[in-house]
Description:
Elements (H helix, E strand, L loop, with lengths): L2 E7 L5 H8 L4 E7 L2 E7 L3 H12 L8 E5 L4 H8 L3 E3 L2 E4 L12 E4 L12 H13 L5 E5 L5 H8 L4 E6 L2 H13 L6 E5 L10 E7 L2 H13 L1 E13 L3 H10 L2 E9 L2 E8 L3
Amino acid sequence: xxxxxxxxxxxxxxxxxxxxxxxxxxxxxxxxxxxxxxxxxxxxxxxxxxxxxxxxxxxxxxxxxxxxxxxxxxxxxxxxxxxxxxxxxxxxxxxxxxxxxxxxxxxxxxxxxxxxxxxxxxxxxxxxxxxxxxxxxxxxxxxxxxxxxxxxxxxxxxxxxxxxxxxxxxxxxxxxxxxxxxxxxxxxxxxxxxxxxxxxxxxxxxxxxxxxxxxxxxxxxxxxxxxxxxxxxxxxxxxxxxxxxxxxxxxxxxxxxxxxxxxxxxxxxxxxxxxxx
Length: 277
């Protein structure tokens, strides 16, 4: 049976949220490109899915969809070829099927991404990983908001955090991150729930990490701030450099202070703390 590859031109800032919205039982996979997404659907399911896909994509599209028919092949094997180890921030992030040796002095994290976000390839994930060593203290309690694969939580735990809680609105991410926690022998210190910040109301964290997108972060930042312990810090990513002024304004309005900023290409990240530092 053949497969249709539907190319959807869209802004890179929308890739994460659009990918999450597009995944249905009919979708075989999604490939992220610099200028859009490619959605793979079995040809016999295309007519049933076409109207749904067009409706979801319409607000995000920056040009017409294009469709290519591809003859059947081993998609798992082809997809696995695209996932390589990532060397970032002193971490060596690899999938289970890659056995390249971990560089000396690096911390290994094993992640099989499946349908979840967070392999270390994306700039926003790299920005968070690169800053973590300068923020985290041994024994800290950590929250990973929008955990995806769990990679940020696992990085914090391997740096010495006592425990990491997490949440994600997607049940697939809960399943995937728990599998990845087991791969890293971290199941006893990692917990994840399906939902939003409401599932951790009343908790107290030294470090909160949120790699999502601007609108989601603007909405949840007041609640995330309330979860911070005294002298706690929050890291925000999934943001473009064009979002900087808006997000700094939100941080200031909440009475928080900027601890550090970093950027990679068009992507920007910020760490902020409660009160003045």
